[in-house]
Amino acid sequence: MFEISKVKKFFFEIPKKEFIIFFSFVIIPQFLRQIIYYTTFLQTNSTMFIDSFETKSMYNSGFPIIGFIEELFIGSIFIFLWFKTDKLHFLTYGWIADAFFDILSVFIFVLIGVTPLQIIFEDIKIRFGIREFLLPYFISGPILNKIKANPYLLSIITTSLGLLFTMIIIILSK
Q: How far apart are CA 155 and CA 28, in angstroms?
C-alpha cells in the first residue's frame, strides 16, 4: 500500500548538514573539470579534448556555463542516493573518478596534443563510452566502493591535481 509518510521520509529525511558538507567536497573536482575544460577551450579554441557529446555541444554553442549547472544537477542526485542506499555509493565514487580522468586527460592533451584515449581509439563513440561510463562507473566506482575509499580524500586529491594542472595549463599558454 502506498503511504505518503514513507515517500516523505525517503525524500526529505536526509541529514542536511552532512549532505551539504559532502556535496561541497564532491562538487569541487567537478567544477574544476569545467574550469580546466574552459581554460583549455580558450587556449586552443577547440573541443578536440572533449569526448562527451553534450559538453562539446555546450562549448560549440557558446554556453559552457551549462556544464556547471549540469554538475550541480548530477551531484544533487548522486549525493542524495549516497545517503539513501549503500548499494549506489559507486555512483559518487565514479563521479569523482570521472572528474579525475577528465582532468588528467585534458592535461595530457595540452602537453602532447591528444588525449590518452585518442592515441588508442579513433572513434569518438568508443572514447565516449570508455571515458564517460566504463572507466568511472563500471570499473573505478565499484572498486573504490568495494575498498571503502574515503570520498573526501579522493575529492581532495582530484581537486589538488586539478588546481595544479590548471595552473600549469595557464602558465604554458603564456
A: 7
Rounded to 5, what percent of the chain is helix, strand, coil?
Answer: 80, 0, 20
Rounded Cα–Cα distance for residues 57 and 168 (Å):
26
Give the Å distances, CA to CA, from 54 to 24, 60, 159. 24, 10, 23
pLDDT on residue 10: 61
Classified as helix, coil or strand, 123 is coil
Q: Which three cell numbers stand for residue 56?
A: 562539446
Q: How far is residue 122's CA from residue 152's CA, in Å, rounded to a whole number?
A: 35
Q: What angle do CA 110, 44, 122 make, to 5 degrees?
A: 65
Place of cell 582530484: 158
Task: Centre a 10 Å sphere on the Cβ of residue 45 and count the other Cβ atoms it contains.
Answer: 7
Please list, residue by residue across 158-167, b when 16 or more beta carbons sit within 10 angstroms of its beta carbon and e when fewer do.
Answer: bbebbbebbe
- The beta strand positions in the chain, using DSSP E, are none
pLDDT of residue 88: 97
Cα–Cα distances in angstroms (integers) from residue 80 to residues 134, 137, 148, 173, in the given order: 22, 17, 18, 39
Run means of pLDDT, 10 residues per run, the chain, 174 residues: 60 83 97 95 94 92 93 96 95 98 97 97 97 97 98 98 95 84
